[in-house]
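=== RUN LOG ===
request id: a7f3
mode: sequence -> structure
chains: 1
length: 227
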Amino acid sequence: MRRGMLTLLAALALPATAHAGPRVDYRQVFTTAAAGASTGVETQLLYKNPADPDAKPIPVREEQFTFPEGTTFDNAVVPPCHASDLEVMLLEDAACPPESYVGGGEGTTMSGFPGAGEMPITVDGWEYGSGTILLAGAKEYHLREATRLRRDGRVITAEVPRTPGGPPDGESALRRAHSLFQARSLGDRAYIRTPPTCPDTGVWTFTARFTFADGVVENDSYDMPCG
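=== RESULT ===
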C-alpha cells in the first residue's frame, strides 16, 4: 500500500496551483469531488522566508487545518495504534498494527548551513484513536521525530517538533511537505467523509492557520471544486 502511495505522490509532485501566502503556499484537497463519499486527503505545503523565498524559512511551530463544513471523521473505521511516541520513534513500523497505518508522504527541511540546500524527509502516520501519530525525518538514518495530530471535530492541529540546525536560529526548518492519506471504509462507514452536499459556490473551502517561531500567525485557505 505504501509503495503505491509514494508512486502516486511522485506523480502528483508536479507544480500545482496553490494559495500563495507570504510564508506558505498551501493546497489541500479531498481525493474525490463527490459529495457524501469516503475520501482521502492530499496536502501540499511550501514554506518560504518572506525576506527571501529561496532562504531557509522561519521554523513553523504549529499547523492547524479546518476541513470544509460537513466533513465527518469516524475513528472506529481504523484500528488504533496504542504505542507511545518513544516506541514509534524506536520501533517505527513495528510499533503499530499494519491496519492502523493511514498514510504519509515526503518533504524536505533546510538546516541553514551554507551549501546544505534541502534535505529529504519521509513521513508516516498511524491512527491512535483521536488523531494521527506522525513520524517524520530522515528514514534511512532512523532519525525521525514523533508528534501527534489532534483531531477536534473537523479541525486537525499538529505541533511541529524543534530539530537541531544551523544559522541564524540553530534549528532546521520545514521547507516542503506533500502527504496523502488514503480513503478507508468499513462497510458503509467512512474514516473521512466529504460534506453531504456541494455548496452553490461549487467549491469546498479548506482553511489553515500556521504559527511561526517568531510569533507570526498566517491564515490561508484553499478552494476545491466539488460536484
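=== NOTES ===
The radius of gyration is 17 Å.
The chain has a mean pLDDT of 91.
=== END ===
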